[in-house]
């Protein structure tokens, strides 16, 4: 499992660097989406419940068909976070531990470009942050 975590974490700095080079706001809060998939919906549901207990949100599951014609179900474990490699890598380790516990796949993470032009007022929205 440690190798799986290290492999998943290798892309973190590259993703962050690319976002910042493209002009993304280094001080913004980002929606980090950790991608999870499996053919077993029940196991995915258990991961979502455990992730929620750890303070994460989960998106609704989507079905897709892989290259071999198998139905694969996926969802994202979501958290609002600064664009900080140490924090994101800790999330990766925690979520991979969950995925291994329930026998589902961790498919990496992603986020969206933030240009800093959002009219987000931290004082007004502090209660909605988790």
Automatic annotation (TrEMBL):
InterPro entries: RraB, RraB-like_sf, RraB_dom
Regulator of ribonuclease activity B domain mapped to chain residues: 11-111
Keywords: Cytoplasm
Gene Ontology MF terms: endoribonuclease inhibitor activity; enzyme binding
Statement: the UniProt record of this protein carries the keyword Nucleotide-binding: no
Domain of life: Bacteria
Matches recorded under HAMAP family: RraB
Protein name, UniProt field: Regulator of ribonuclease activity B
Protein's organism: Gilliamella apicola
């Amino acid at each position: 499992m440690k190798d799986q975590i290290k492999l998943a974490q290798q892309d973190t700095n590259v993703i962050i660097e690319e976002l910042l080079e493209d002009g993304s706001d280094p001080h913004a809060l980002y929606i980090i989406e950790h991608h999870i998939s499996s053919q077993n919906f029940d196991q995915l549901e258990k991961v979502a419940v455990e992730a929620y207990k750890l303070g994460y949100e989960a998106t609704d599951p989507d079905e897709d068909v892989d290259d071999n014609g198998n139905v694969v179900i996926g969802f994202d474990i979501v958290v609002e976070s600064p664009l900080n490699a140490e924090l994101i890598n800790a999330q990766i380790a925690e979520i991979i531990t969950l995925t291994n516990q329930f026998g589902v796949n961790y498919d990496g993470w992603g986020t969206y470009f933030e240009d800093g032009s959002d009219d987000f007022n931290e004082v007004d929205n502090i209660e909605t942050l988790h």
